[in-house]
Design goal:
This protein has helices spanning about 15-30, 50-55, 80-90, 100-105, 110-120, 135, 140-150, 160, 180-200, 200-205, 220-225, 240-250; strands at about 5-10, 40-45, 60-65, 90-95, 125-130, 165-170, 210, 230-235. It is α/β, with parallel strands linked by helices and about 250 residues long. Helix 2 (about 50-55) links the parallel strand 2 (about 40-45) and strand 3. Helix 1 (about 15-30) packs parallel to helix 2, helix 5 (about 110-120) packs across helix 7 and helix 7 packs across helix 9. The chain starts with 5 loop residues before the first strand and ends with a helix.
């Protein structure tokens, strides 16, 4: 089964609305000269999403958010609902990023609640899983990743699971300059696909896209994408520069 590759940029807490417009304009111009068939996605901060959607019109660039609430509305100061994102024209949303888990206390249970509400609408969720350095060094990567998948995807029906995109992000490689070798990344991607098969069946697992995230740069993107199990990348800092992200997109193909 052919899986369309994805090049997604997670901008984290970077770029004002004005800077967002400029970056998307520059990226769109660079992509006009690049042969690629992958899905291109940028995920700016909430306050720049409306600007991003407007700036991306007429380009191949789609816009995602960095989180979404488990409720449509209510007394939830600081939260943003999937319905609000859909109204703006946002198409995707990242859930369970390692920084949300480690800094803001997200758990598999809260990620699962957010995911199940997102799936009641039209957004495409990108669910993140990955182990920390201590887990990797103590040979617990498999246990940690399987546990995160089971918890985050609990009670998701198989007929909705095919909308999911997963992202494997070894926490020890995020923002550190360290990158899992292509072989290490592919091994965990295969483990993830096997776990998805156990949960939802072989057909869903074969069609589900699994991205790699962890200090992806133009210098290592092509080598990572040579692995059949890696269906694209979730890029942090390198997506904040139009030239570097365009080079990564070219590598994704």
């Amino acid at each position: 089964m052919s899986r369309r590759r994805v090049a997604a940029g997670n901008w984290k807490m970077n770029k004002t609305a004005g800077e967002t417009r400029t970056l998307i304009r520059d990226l769109g111009n660079k992509l006009k000269g690049i042969e690629h068939g992958c899905e291109v996605l940028v995920c700016p901060p909430f306050v720049a999403l409306e600007t991003a959607v407007d700036a991306a019109k007429g380009t191949v660039i789609e816009v995602g958010a960095q989180n979404a609430s488990w409720q449509k509305s209510g007394a939830l100061t600081g939260e943003v609902s999937p319905e609000m994102l859909e109204y703006l024209g946002v198409t995707h949303v990242i859930l369970g990023h390692s920084e949300r888990r480690s800094i803001f206390g997200e758990t598999d249970e809260t990620v699962n609640a957010r995911l199940r509400h997102v799936l009641s609408g039209s957004l495409v969720p990108i669910v993140c899983v990955g182990e920390g350095l201590a887990d990797r060094e103590s040979d617990r990567t498999g246990d940690v990743v399987r546990g995160q998948l089971r918890g985050s995807l609990a009670e998701v029906p198989a007929d909705q699971a095919d909308r999911l995109i997963l992202a494997y992000e070894p926490v020890w490689a995020i923002g550190t300059g360290r990158t899992a070798s292509p072989e290490m990344a592919a091994e965990v991607h295969a483990l993830i696909r096997g776990e998805i098969a156990a949960i939802f069946g072989d057909s869903v697992a074969e069609g589900m896209r699994v991205l790699y995230g962890g200090s992806v740069k133009p210098e290592n993107a092509a080598e990572l994408l040579n692995e059949d199990e890696i269906d694209g990348v979730l890029v942090g800092g390198a997506s904040l520069d139009a030239s570097s992200f365009a080079a990564i997109i070219a590598a994704v193909g």
